[in-house]
Amino acid sequence: MKAIELNAERIDLLTAFEKEARATEPDIFISGFDENNFKTATLTALSNPNFASAKCLLCADENDHIIGRIDFSLLPSLAFGGEIRAYVDWIYVLKKHRHKGVAQFLFKEMEKYLKNHGINEYFLITAENEESKTFYNSIPNAEISKHDVLTKNLT
User: Are 51 and 43 in contact (CB under 8 A)?
Assistant: First the structure.
């Protein structure tokens, strides 16, 4: 597996992944998928300075087929003494590639990225299903609050 940071040149990789995800799990992705609208909206966001802190790492298999993604945003805050934290917006692994270490790989790659950028903590709101809860509980050194917020300090 290898991690690929999303940029404009890689939009076709992300689009193919999103199309496959929607085809395999229509109960999760209930709206239709228009490839051109998706590409246009994503490319617009990638070139918008307001999205500069939004990041997406893709996981490719040995054939460069995208099998998972993790999206996170860097959140600078004056409330905590000028710290920057990361918020995990979305993680998704194609159904046929689950339970093979893809999500763990994506989290580790995200943690490397954050550490390399001087960011020592991330958080997310956990999903409600049991499969997700089992996964979140497997993240080493992470804490899940009674409000289903997972926090992990990277120091």
Answer: no
The Cα 38–Cα 25 span in angstroms is 18
- Going 95 to 98 to 103 to 105, the CA torsion angle's sign is negative
Task: Please write the tens of the pLDDT for every residue from 3-36.
Answer: 999 999 999 999 999 999 998 887 777 777 899 9
**Residue 149 and residue 108: Cα distance in Å, rounded?**
19
φ/ψ of residue 105, rounded to 5? -60, -45
pLDDT tens digit sequence for 99-136: 999 999 999 999 999 999 999 888 887 777 777 777 77
CB atoms within 10 A of CB 48: 10
Please state, in angstroms and rounded to a whole number, the distance separating the CA atoms of residues 67 and 1: 9
Give the type of residue at 63: N
Report yes or no: 135 and 103 within 8 Å, Cβ to Cβ. Answer: yes
Q: Classify 31 as helix, strand or coil.
A: coil
Q: How many residues are given for the chain? A: 155
